[in-house]
Design brief:
Its EC number is 5.4.99.5. The chain is of the alpha/beta class. It has helices at 16-34, 58-63, 115-118; strands at 2-10, 41-48, 71-75, 86-94, 105-107.
Length: 119
């Protein structure tokens, strides 16, 4: 079965080191909380708010050894008043777990996006 796992993290500024560190933290939490192994990952789509432009978040996934996983980066829709400086991910995963067992991950200021899932 294929499951989708969402996650988001807010970073402090548009700086490559900050974005990559935050993205690595987000990936690690998604993988750890959901018991995902490298071979379970089908693909990951990353998005960033339009105020983040200094690097690709997919670089962080490659840094973590995810070299055989297809990755895609895109920009979020620039909605007025949206939470700034957010990196999001949508991971597609092969799993025997039920969809109800998926633990979506919202870190730092991104907990405001989905307080119901951030706990």
């Amino acid at each position: 079965m294929v499951l989708a796992v969402r996650g988001a993290i807010q970073v402090d500024r548009d700086d490559p080191a900050e974005i990559l560190a935050g993205t690595r933290e987000l990936i690690r939490e998604v993988v750890d909380r959901n018991g995902i192994g490298p071979d379970d990952l089908i693909s990951i789509v990353f998005t960033m708010t339009p105020d983040l432009t200094s690097c690709f978040p997919a670089v962080a996934a490659r840094d973590l050894g995810l070299v055989d996983v297809p990755l895609l980066c895109a920009t979020e829709v620039p909605v007025p008043g949206a939470l700034p400086r957010v990196v999001r991910l949508l991971a597609h995963v092969e799993s025997d777990r039920p969809r109800s067992a998926v633990r979506h991950v919202y870190l730092r200021g991104a907990t405001r996006l989905r307080p119901d899932l951030a706990a």
